[in-house]
Design goal:
single chain, 135 residues, mainly alpha, Recoverin, domain 1, 2 domains, two-stranded antiparallel sheet, 7 helices, 64% helix, calcium ion binding, calcium, EF-hand domain-containing protein, EF_Hand_1_Ca_BS, repeat
């Protein structure tokens, strides 16, 4: 699922923008730990033109930045790829999830479209969005 399609999914009234409520639903779907204060602050930061709505370009730009930061955190050695070991380390130490090494390796295998045993940025996004589509 592309970021544009994600935007469309949360644009409940199909007006081409996200209200604060629609944006809140989107954020909480991906980041359940965000507070309403966090959401409102982000909304104001993302609403670059200050019209009280987030358009698709503002949303895609913000979300892509978040995904790149997340990828860089997971890419512990900075080589542009995420291994099962790196994913396990991040899940355990930063996120606090108790996924086993085997579960992390399986997630890598599922999203590893080029067969190199690692995730590049595009494969990482696909993995995240595959979880989102199931939710």
């Amino acid at each position: 699922m592309s970021l544009e399609k994600t935007f469309e999914r949360f644009d409940k009234n199909n007006d081409g923008t996200l209200s604060l409520g629609e944006f809140s639903d989107a954020v909480l779907n991906f980041f359940p730990g965000f507070t309403q204060e966090d959401i409102e602050r982000r909304f104001k930061e993302i609403d670059i033109n200050g019209n009280g709505q987030i358009n698709v370009n503002e949303f895609v730009s913000w979300f892509d930045e978040i995904l790149k930061i997340s990828f860089d955190v997971c890419d512990v050695d900075g080589d542009g790829k995420i291994t099962g070991r790196e994913l396990h380390l991040v899940m355990k130490t930063i996120i606090g999830k108790t996924h086993t090494k085997e579960v992390c390796a399986k997630q890598i295998r599922i999203a590893d479209t080029d067969g190199d045993g690692c995730l590049d940025y595009e494969e990482f996004k696909a993995l995240l969005f595959s979880d989102f589509k199931k939710g």
